[in-house]
Amino acid sequence: MKISALLSRGSAPSELVEAELDDPRPDEVIVRIEAVGVCHTDLVTRKKLGERPAVLGHEGCGTVEYLGSSVDGLAVGDRVVISFASCGGCAQCRAGRPGYCAWATALNGSGRRLDKTPTIRVRDEPVFGAFFGQSSFATAALADAGSCVPVGDVPPAAVASLGCGFLTGAGAVLNVLRPRPGDRLLVVGAGGVGAAAALTALSEGVEVVVAEPVAARRALLARYGATAVASPADSIPAVTHALDTTGRPESIARALTLLRPHGVLVLVGLGPAEVSLDMRTLMLRGLQVRGCVEGDAEPSVLIPELVRRYRSGLLPLDHLVTTYPLGDFDRAVADQQAGVTLKPVLLPGSRR
Fold first, then answer.
1. At what angle do helices 192-203 and 215-223 cross, to 10 degrees?
2. For the whole prediction, is pTM greater than 0.90?
3. Per the database record, which ranges form the Enoyl reductase (ER) domain (predicted)?
């Protein structure tokens, strides 16, 4: 199948190219992409791959166009959010924790299927594809049917990032931190992940403090009831729960000092491999530090719940999003890094 795809090569400007998508295997589908979020992981991977040509993108939302011969539970015409890939059969997948799938790295980051066959070719040459099981910076994506979650008639741009970024933030709150009314949650960093976490906690009736240097992001979350400060080093009352989305050692250390006894800190941001922690503080105050991947979520369960909250007005995800044509990827990234945009979402069907 011929498609248009956004081809990346290291730090060079991205370009829209004609590409060929492989035919779906029995357990795969082809989704016509209507919207796809831009995530920090896309940028990290692009840098890591160097000059290797790649089609990235892993927060796709669109309409199912073709079904593999053994696919059940989906129909042509269904609007779906495509989430990360998992094997479905290992111990973690069977326990409802597919983010920790035994095959997660190979399925989501190898650039090919598990059997090492490519899914995308450009100029008759295989390129890095199958990113998070989809490579959705394109007009269509090949995905495992099990990664596709039907979402019904909702705006694709609003829900696309439920495939990863919004799922991570909301899941960290609902599945791991689990604050209740009367608790106070500190969210460090209010990009897509942190903002989704803050809105989710507010929808639970939890008091939220957001530490974020970008004034526009602080103002947006304050509008929905969060207390917003520029830095975790500012004066912040003691909190029962904390979420760090930055991975910065100084932010993690500061969050620990703000936790009440028996408080919980969850880490979802990747930073330096090593961080120094005050073990006396951890032990004597009974604190917990937890890592969290993809919100500890089962996408087929959590995504419909988050869509329900969005429909009811409890989770205004569309207010976090700014849309761009697919070919404006580099401008979208520049705007996000400059703080102009909170969560860029690309629309493959739009023109410049």
1. 20
2. yes
3. 10-346
Same domain, 192 and 114: no
Residues, the chain, total?
Answer: 352
3-state secondary structure of 327: helix
Residues 144 and 174 in one domain: no
| CA 350 from centroid of its chain's CA atoms | 22
CA 313 to the chain's CA centroid: 21
Number of other CB atoms surrounding residue 338 within 10 Å: 9
Q: Are 27 and 70 in contact (CB under 8 A)?
A: yes
The count of domains in the chain is: 2
**CA 209, CA 297: separation in Å to the nearest integer?**
24
For residues 216-237, one letter each, b for 16 or more C-beta atoms within 10 angstroms of the residue's C-beta and e for the rest, the string is: ebbebbeeeebbbbeebeeebe
Q: pLDDT tens, 184-220?
A: 999 999 999 999 999 999 999 999 999 999 999 999 9
**Residues 4-60: tens digit of each pLDDT:** 999 999 888 899 999 999 999 999 999 999 999 999 999 999 999 999 999 999 999
Inter-CA distances, 282 with 134, 220, 266, 286, Å: 40, 33, 14, 6
Contact 86, 104 (CB under 8 A): yes
Residue 163 identity:
G
Other C-beta atoms lying within 10 Å of the C-beta of residue 91: 10
